[in-house]
Inverse folding.
């Protein structure tokens, strides 16, 4: 079993749609969680950290469920510019960041 | 503030040759990481420096890979001799602390023919 698992997609959604991605992690001792965004042939960039109480940043909402060991990312009112790969990243309390394979999102006009 | 910079952005070499990748982290970031993404796979940890000290190189594939960070500033990753399976994108990242945000360079794409 992979340490961090994501549905690779692709998710093809129309503009304005709401889309949700899930990610599961295997190490129950994991301490910090992130969503990174990676555009084609570019580097990953931090989209948002994920806090235990859940957090929102504009159209993006991230949630953490420690009991079930999953993290989610909800994107509302999708824009064409949201098309990218979304990487779930888990830190186990050390310098080791574990990456999921990423979920590809394509927002269609 | 300058971001993480990597050089070269793309390198094409033949099997058996040597390649050296360079990473300049964000100034003041003691933590420097090398990661690699092979086609279709997840980004995988190679090693971690704190200043000039290697903290963990458990992700290095084998002894054909050598990383250094002279003086705790820039880092180099040498592959010698390169094999076909070494092809991929090598990302460097830096962070101020070990559990916070990672800042990535644009990556060095290595193609071994």
């Amino acid at each position: 079993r992979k340490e961090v698992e994501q549905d690779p997609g692709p998710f093809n959604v129309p503009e304005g749609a709401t889309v949700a991605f899930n990610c599961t992690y295997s190490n129950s001792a994991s301490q910090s969680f992130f969503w990174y965004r990676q555009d084609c042939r570019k580097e990953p960039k931090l989209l948002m950290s994920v806090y235990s109480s859940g957090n929102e940043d504009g159209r993006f909402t991230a949630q953490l469920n420690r009991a079930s060991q999953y993290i989610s990312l909800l994107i509302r009112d999708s824009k064409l510019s949201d098309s990218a790969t979304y990487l779930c990243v888990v830190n186990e309390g050390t310098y080791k960041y574990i990456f999921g394979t990423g979920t590809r999102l394509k927002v269609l006009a | 503030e300058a971001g993480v910079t990597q050089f070269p952005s793309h390198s094409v070499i033949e099997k058996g040759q040597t390649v050296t990748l360079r990473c300049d982290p964000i100034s003041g970031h003691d933590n420097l990481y090398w990661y690699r993404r092979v086609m279709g796979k997840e980004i995988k940890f190679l090693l971690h420096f704190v200043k000039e000290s290697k903290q963990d190189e458990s992700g290095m594939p084998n002894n054909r890979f050598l990383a250094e960070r002279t003086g705790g500033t820039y880092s180099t990753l040498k592959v010698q001799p390169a094999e076909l399976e070494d092809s991929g994108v090598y990302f460097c990242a830096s962070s101020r602390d070990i559990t916070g945000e990672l800042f990535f360079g644009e990556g060095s794409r290595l193609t071994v023919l």
Summary: The two ends of chain B are 37 Å apart (CA to CA). Chain B is about 0% helix and 50% strand.
